[in-house]
């Protein structure tokens, strides 16, 4: 087995965060764990494993662990380090973009050994073992198990902040926002300058329909902290701005958007949302300047922001009588999001005005098919914007698009879903359904080359 270099913790097979800070805390604790101590005169198997892992020799550590497991099955220190070895192996698979099932298998091996270490440890088992197990379950999408394990750990170690943080994240993934807020309160009492914790608590309030409370909480967090680092953190100002937008206080959102862009000028998502807010408060010329700046480097934006920028630019062009330009923008929107209501309506009207009646009928027929569930689609897209890493939100949208039915939209959303969640168990069935849908509806009509560009 190849020896892997030990780099950053917390990456899963698709490159996203593997339990974040929770697993970093677990690994740090695993290196220092009291149950890993060994007599200085005779290094134990656990110490041998730990030394190999600390040198980044994951392959040799796995081989040694397999060799020694039959005689060290009941050694909690050995099982802990062997679990740590499998976690680092999963991390290495992720860095190398190996098949996701390899990383998943390694993580399940890690869970098994960490459970054994916890159960074999003298009571009470150390909190980092509960944390490691809970974080791995969370990463595998098993959030209910993650909550259960974290709760077991909190029952033994009620003041352990990383366990409360882990449970808050998993409660949020389950939609148990009130419970998540309770855990975030524990975290913030212990660590009042925890920026991600304050933002996560505010997002939970947003999800409960209390965005104005969320904005006020974050403003108070900035003021009471007296910490210049928090005052200049773009994440806090961006979260305040978004909460103010959710409660339709657009004029108040201008200032936090400006500060977020000031502290993170390279982040296109903030710039595009700021442009949208400027449009809402009637500052059209500034909106156009921002949009044109980012449309000139559109590849720096993700698909959601590309759609948002292109549509807003098209709407402004249409309102100012630039019909040819508006048509170009709307066509670009529909190439990225075939169910975009505004672009379908706008393009259909433009085509009818300019005499392209055949294409106008096609576009407006798509809009008509979309109309019965248009509100549901809009809500699904809004939920994805708020929770881009929650697979349930994207599955909701895909199901709606299958209902229409609209195969091009289903394909686009399914490709994005597969990119973000490459090992999701529902992918094969979704691909089968897309194939059946395309066979039933037929391929999309081809347009003359250059049209819509």
If you had to describe this structure to a student in words, what would you say it looks like?
By secondary structure, this protein is mainly α. The chain contains 24 helices and no strands. Helix 4 runs antiparallel to helix 5 and helix 10 runs antiparallel to helix 11. The N terminus and C terminus are likely disordered.
Largest sheet: none
Number of beta-strand segments? 0
Mean pLDDT: 85
> What is the count of DSSP helices, taking H or I runs of 4+ residues?
24
Percentage of residues assigned to helices? over 70%
Shape: globular
SSE order, as H and E?
HHHHHHHHHHHHHHHHHHHHHHHH
Radius of gyration: 26 Å
Taking pLDDT < 50 over at least 5 consecutive residues as the criterion, the unreliable ranges are 1-18, 35-39, 446-453
Give descriptors for this structure.
about 75% helix, disordered N terminus, disordered C terminus, mainly alpha, about 0% strand, about 450 residues, single chain
Provide a concise account of the structure shown.
The protein has 453 residues and is an all-alpha fold. It is 73% helix and 0% strand.
Secondary-structure topology with pairs:
Blueprint: H1 21-32, H2 45-54, H3 58-72, H4 76-95, H5 100-120, H6 127-139, H7 143-156, H8 161-173, H9 177-190, H10 195-207, H11 211-225, H12 228-231, H13 234-246, H14 250-263, H15 268-280, H16 284-295, H17 303-319, H18 323-336, H19 341-353, H20 357-370, H21 374-386, H22 391-403, H23 407-420, H24 427-441
